[in-house]
Each structure stands twice: as C-alpha cells, then as structure tokens.
Amino acid sequence: MVTVFKRSFATVWALISREMATNYGKSPGGYIWAILEPAAGIALMTALFSIAFRQPQLGISFALFYATGMLPFTMYKDLSGKIAKSISFSEKLMAYPAVTFMDAILARLILNTITQITIFFIVFGFIMATVETRAHLDFQWIALSIAATLNLSVGIGIFNSVAFMKVPVWENMWAILNRPMFMISCIFFLFDSVPEPFKSMLWFNPLVHIVGLMRKGFYPSYDAAYVSLTYLFAPPLILSAFGLMMLRRYHNSVR
Question: Could you list the residue ranges forming a coiled coil in this record (predicted)?
Fold first, then answer.
C-alpha cells in the first residue's frame, strides 16, 4: 500500500511539474499574468461603477464588493475548465500503466487550487491593505465558500471530462451555455435586489450561493439567507461520483 501511494505521489508530482512548465513557463511573467487578470478586471469594474454610482450595494468599497463576486467565479471557471481537459491534456502519458486518470485529475486539481487560493490571498490582501473597506472577516464563511467552489468545480469538471470525450459536440455547447454565467452570478449586484420571477430562476445558479457565502464572510450584516448548503454540495458530489464511475468504465478506451 505504501509503495503504491509513493508511486502515485511521484506520478502526480511529475504531472504537476509538467503542467507548470507547459502552462506557466512558456509566457513571460507566467504566474504573474494569472494574478493580474482578475486584478485588472476588478480594477476596471471599480473604476467604471465608481463613476456611475456613489457606493456599491454592499459596504463602501467597490473593489471589495466586486472581488467577492469575481474571484469565486474565476476560481470556478479555471478549475472546472482545467479538470474537464485533464484527460485530453495527459492522454499520451496515460498510455503508460503508471499513469491513471485519477493522477491526471489530481495533478490539475492540486496545482490550480493552490494557484487560485494564492490569487485570493494576494488580491484580497492588497484591497484590504490599500482601500478603506470597513469589512470584518469571518473565515468560517470564506472557507466554506472556497470549499463549495472546489466541490462545484470538481463535480462539473469530472462530468465534463467524460462528456467531452464521449460527445465531442458537448464541449462547444457547454461553452455557449457558460457565456452568460458572468452576468448572472451576482458579481455586479446582490441576489436580494433581483425582482421576481427572475429571482426564483436565478436561485438555481450555484455560483449565486457561492458568492453569497463569500460576501457573508466579508460583510457581517449580510445575511444571505437564500444560500442552501445542501444544494451547493449534494448535486456536485453526485456528478463527481457519476463521472468517476464512467471514467473507470471507459478507462481502457481513454488510455
């Protein structure tokens, strides 16, 4: 058992090193661009909305308000996309018996989770240090929001890794379906301010719940009573289980 674990750890580490060199080693700046992209988006939105409005819908800082929406969304988009492509990214290496589909998934999950959490700390730390926010951090809700984002990303990523392989057209369909998510995930507004019947429809977007949890962790006065932890965690876990079952079934054809 120990030998198997060591072999798997070595394989995952080798895949992580390969991805770091492939995705972040080719362009100048590498990891810096991964941090600057969401930071630039937050800065742009802060500048635009500061001109149009006197204050955000929550708190006094536009930068913090948009960061609590954009960073969870960015984390979900990056992780789910990377996990969905983990099989195709390591397809040639999976011809070797030592490399399994779980190694490929774990390598991408570990590397990109560390990257996204690092971005969280840098961006939020910079905002809290340079802008008056009057925020009071509750790490319980912040950690829960990050855990829910990871859970959702893994569930959708693993399911899509199977779907992309078995139904190639689904990749294009998924890209089309995901385009409006940036606008309907409560990045720019509060869920509570949405009128019916759109509010009831918007509730089924899990990212709305994740953003609500994140904002609850920065704004003690924000209740976020609409958030359902059962809805956030149960369906993605089912997707993960189904996706892993299908990957195991089709493992030979993938390799």
Answer: none
Question: What one-character DSSP code corresponds to residue 20?
Answer: I
| 83: number of Cβ within 10 Å | 27
H-helix or E-strand spanning residue 40? helix 31-52
Element (H, E) at 134: none
For residues 140 and 224, the answer to whether their CB atoms sit within 8 Å is no
Round to the nearest angstrom and report the end-to-end CA distance of the chain: 24
Length of the chain: 255
Distance, in Å, from the CA atom of 130 to the CA atom of 53, rounded to the nearest integer, reads: 21
Separation in Å, CA 103 to CA 11, 91, 93, 108: 7, 11, 11, 9
H helices of 131-228, in order, are 139-166, 169-178, 198-202, 206-218
* Residue 233 φ/ψ, nearest 5 degrees: -105, -35
Distance CA 161, CA 146 (A): 22
Condensed to tens digits (0 to 9), the pLDDT of residues 14-33 reads 777 777 777 665 555 566 76
pLDDT in tens, 19-73: 777 766 555 556 676 667 777 777 777 667 666 666 788 888 888 898 899 899 9
Residue 198 tokens, joined: 């759109």
The answer to whether the beta carbons of residues 201 and 124 sit under 8 Å apart is: no
